[in-house]
Fold this sequence. Notes:
The active site is at residues 123, 248, 278. 31% of the residues lie in helices and 24% in strands. The radius of gyration is 19 Å and the shape is globular. The chain has helices spanning 30-34, 41-47, 62-77, 102-108, 125-138, 213-235, 252-262, 273-276, 283-294, and strands spanning 13-22, 26-29, 52-55, 86-90, 115-119, 144-152, 170-180, 189-192, 200-201, 210-211, 244-247, 268-269, 302-309, 313-320.
Amino acid sequence: MSGGLQIPDARAGARVLAFGDYRPARIVTNDEIARTVDTDDEWIRTRVGIAERRIAGDDEGIVELGVHAGGKALAGSGLDPSDIDLVILATCSAESPMPGYAPQVAHRLGIDAPGAFDLNAACAGFCYALATASAAVRAGNARNVLVVGAEKMSQWIDWTDRSTCIIFADGAGAAVVAGSDSPGIGPVVWGSAGDKYDKIIIEDRHSFIRQEGQSVFRWATTAIAPVAAQACERAGIKPEELAAVVPHQANLRIIEAIARRLKAVNAVVADDIVQSGNTSGASIPLALSRMIERGDVPSGAPALLVGFGAGLSYAAQVIQIP
Ligand SMILES: CC(C)(COP(=O)(O)OP(=O)(O)OC[C@H]1O[C@@H](n2cnc3c(N)ncnc32)[C@H](O)[C@@H]1OP(=O)(O)O)[C@@H](O)C(=O)NCCC(=O)NCCS
């Protein structure tokens, strides 16, 4: 008798069928923040690049944000909820640590009993979740996966701290990942720098987000472009072939520095931070959804995604635009 196992549903590749996004209705401008803390519109635009951000209402938690974005991605994919076998929710701003939020998002979307778990890699969370979804599909562990990045950063912000309250915001983005005969999601390049764990941190349940802005800025503008370049190399794509570069929307100066160093001379560079602020694990699918909706990037073209932030954790991959 042979003890050999089989993997009946393994696939050669995985690809994104559709993205979805959700921005809470309430817009908070720089001028509105400047009425309560010592800052001004020009300082924020010049140093960070943000003009306004969205802040969720009291009745909108991680689940509601995730359901809105996940529902839109699911509708765009043309799949039925019963086609989804796994739901991964990337978040670092959950109201409580237990239970995870992915099972509730799945339930609210009518996805019956899928595998479901939350993933915390902070601002790199969406790229980690996308890589995990791709691996699950290729290994035959799921036919289709719903990946959601949902963040309510506003509930972890000290609204009297001008160094953080101008930056972080709320929102959600999502993607449906399916099996394919050729790869539409390239290899992930991921890593971390745990020695810098305290550079962006919420210390305990009574604390707010705190960061060492300058150290994070230096790290992001030096360490991340090589990671992005490596993701291109591993996917067999030259930076000049990229149609889009979608870095985590941390700070417009960081985004521009990464794109410049990567020399992606023909790419549209995501700048959703101007309107949406820094939404951590939601920022990449939010930005890319808007670029696709606007017609900035053609279907089938290669786009680089690169997430980085608290941990410190980072991840990058090249995908084909759905
Ligand atoms: C936070 C950040 C915008 C601050 O910009 P900076 O140019 O580094 O500013 P500094 O921290 O050196 O502060 C310079 C001065 O501006 C002041 N300042 C800070 N926030 C301010 C604000 N919102 N408005 C006006 N002044 C502000 C500081 O108090 C400091 O004043 P001082 O010189 O009198 O002490 C910038 O460091 C940054 O974006 N870092 C990366 C953070 C990030 O992206 N985090 C998320 C990663 S996922």
